């Protein structure tokens, strides 16, 4: 097994004229790129290769697996580079450059404004490899909010050959035929297999409920569970899902008996990603899960974690006694509207746009099926 080799199986046979590397460096990026990989495979006119990289490539590898799209290439690191942007960029830049030389793709695709995405886009630009930028998040007019993702997103937007947005043109991207609306590909991911969570997500998407997702593993976080019933009594549209090692706590058992509360010991990764994305706020003592939340569009509270303030950062580091008041503030300020309806073709639209970029289609936009002569 080499640093650039697949951990499982072999690379798909190269029987296409064009290939694209779908490069992910975090679980939120996987959540948007995995459906695209599936759409590319089903259309079978481009070869798509999923790449798991970033500061923790094995976590990304496992996320691809959980969403049913195994990583074709997993870039292993000799050691964790740390969390500072400079350290992550320095570690990944030469590795991704070597990957591009080794694979010589027709294009790469990245999502959002993470450090992996901006490094991959920069290296691809230097190698004169087209960059497809899938940006399903909300554009900001503040360069420091969120930090550093918004600045990274704008940098990628200037380097990209194809810029795919949720709706309309995005700030910081060139206007023209290379800005195409595709929607949020995360909507294409499978719904939770647990019927309780599937119904909960539908209620949230319809604007009928707000979800407070709580993941606690450390004994020092147990007092937070005592405050969760107050949230249920305070707002009739609030629902709580509690998971983690503290689910055997007496307070957790009492919470499980309440309406609008679900208590489970563990959540499969695919369901966890979907619930984080649906939540109004995440509360957890797991720093890695909290770090993923903003990329899924959810503000997060890190319980008793190290406080590293960033301008506009949606991660808040709070000591246990102050968590509930902070959660209530987030609920009161919740700007979310009911989710926009999805037609399930977001990832297919991405594949169509990429095929157009390669000259394989006369239009970048997915055309509705034409009625046949027998339908007339």
TrEMBL record:
Top-rank lineage group of the source organism:
Bacteria
Q: Which residues form the UDP-N-acetylglucosamine 2-epimerase domain?
A: 40-303
Question: What are the record keywords, sorted?
Answer: Isomerase
Task: Please state the Enzyme Commission number of this protein.
Answer: 5.1.3.14
Query: One short Pfam family name for this protein?
Result: Epimerase_2
Which family does the similarity line name? Answer: Belongs to the UDP-N-acetylglucosamine 2-epimerase family.
PANTHER family attached to this UniProt entry: UDP-N-ACETYLGLUCOSAMINE 2-EPIMERASE
| Name of the protein this chain belongs to | UDP-N-acetylglucosamine 2-epimerase (non-hydrolyzing)
